[in-house]
Amino acid sequence: MAQLIDGKKISQEIKDELKEKVAELKEQGIEGALAVIQVGNDPASSVYVRNKKRACEYIGIRSESYELPEETTEDELLTLIETLNEDPKINGILCQLPVPVHMDENKIIRTIAPEKDVDGFHTQNVGALVVGQTGFVSCTPAGVIQLLKRSGIEIAGKHCVVVGRSNIVGKPMALLMLQENATVTICHSRTADLQSMCRQADILIVAVGKPKMITAEYVKEGATVIDVGIHRQENGKLCGDVDFEQVAPIAGAITPVPGGVGPMTIAMLMNNCVEAMTR
Ligand code: NDP
User: Is the pLDDT of residue 20 over 90?
Assistant: First the structure.
């Protein structure tokens, strides 16, 4: 049976380390604050926002909530972001996505000052990642790197296959693995023979958004399997993009869902907030 990569435990370790760092910064007179904007009241977004605020409280930084009604205009939202950009007491700004359809998501991301973009979505931060410069990195892929490193899984020289090429997960994930000296293959919906590609992976990272799509046939014996997907099944239980029951007996190490990648995203968001305080 595979080594279980425990995201709950590792994310807790990270939050505890950050809590200590925040206390030290406070002693130097440096306080942190994250502005969290939510437009409309999508229930899933509300849960994410609540968890982010809770994490801020845990590590000891202030969170400022901006709950805007669904009818808010794009201009009103952009004006709020610009005000927060100028506010010296705010280190980080986060606008919970998705925003209502009458708003241009890219424009909103572009308006957040790159030095306060703790989600790491601004093109300046994405560009910094591409050329290997300092910037904020998208939280979920950054969390995967921490999961691997803190579980003692060697990355350098390994063949990593990333399934999915979204801007927030797949692409930054591939770039981070490259930065860690893995040999990286990126797969997507137009990849011919996905199964044989995946079977070549020493480290298989899956972010396709399809419940239990990755079955035993996709996995090489002893491979490390990281499952980014999260889905609520009809029976109310959560599952990932990987069929855990089938894959766990073959894999060398695997993340469960829940309790794998999920908790890491917020821990890495907190990490970015603390970085924003120290910069
Ligand atoms: P997107 O829908 O934006 O991207 C999915 C990617 O998978 C696309 O690049 C798509 O290819 C590819 N894909 C879809 N179907 C197939 C297929 N049959 N074969 C090969 N590739 C395929 O999703 P996200 O990247 O935003 O998220 C992926 C998953 O991760 C979701 O389940 C999401 O809920 C979860 N997630 C979890 C987070 C966490 O904190 N744990 C955070 C963010 C996401 P193409 O580009 O060709 O369309």
Answer: yes
Q: What would the DSSP string read from start to end of 199-250?
A: TT-SEEEE----TT-B-GGG--TT-EEEE---EE-TTS-EE-SB-HHHHTTT
pTM score > 0.90 for this model? Answer: yes
Give the pLDDT confidence of 59-80 residue by residue, as tens digits. 999 999 999 999 999 999 999 9
Q: How far apart are alpha carbons 7 and 13 in whole angstroms?
A: 10
Q: Helical H runs in the chain?
A: 7-27, 43-59, 74-86, 105-111, 123-131, 139-150, 170-179, 194-198, 244-247, 262-278
Rounded distance between C-alpha atoms, residue 200 and residue 190, angstroms: 18
**Catalytic residue list:** 52, 96, 119
Rounded CA-CA distance 168/45 in Å is: 16
State the closest ligand 1 atom to the C-alpha of 170, by its place in the atom list counted from 1: 25
Centre of ligand 1 from the C-alpha of residue 213, in Å: 11
Whether residue 162 contacts residue 194, with contact meaning beta carbons closer than 8 Å, is answered with no
| Per-residue pLDDT at 56 exceeds 90 | yes
Pocket residues: Cβ below 6 A from ligand 1: 140, 163-166, 168-170, 187-191, 194, 207-210, 228-230, 241, 261-262, 265
Q: What are the pLDDT digits (tens) for 146-184?
A: 999 999 999 999 999 999 999 999 999 999 999 999 999
Strand partners, 35: 64, 93
Q: In whole angstroms, what is the distance from residue 144 CA to residue 5 CA?
A: 10
**Cα–Cα distances in angstroms (integers) from residue 246 to residues 82, 147, 195, 220, in the given order:** 49, 22, 15, 12
Per-residue confidence at 279, pLDDT binned at 50, 70, 90? confident
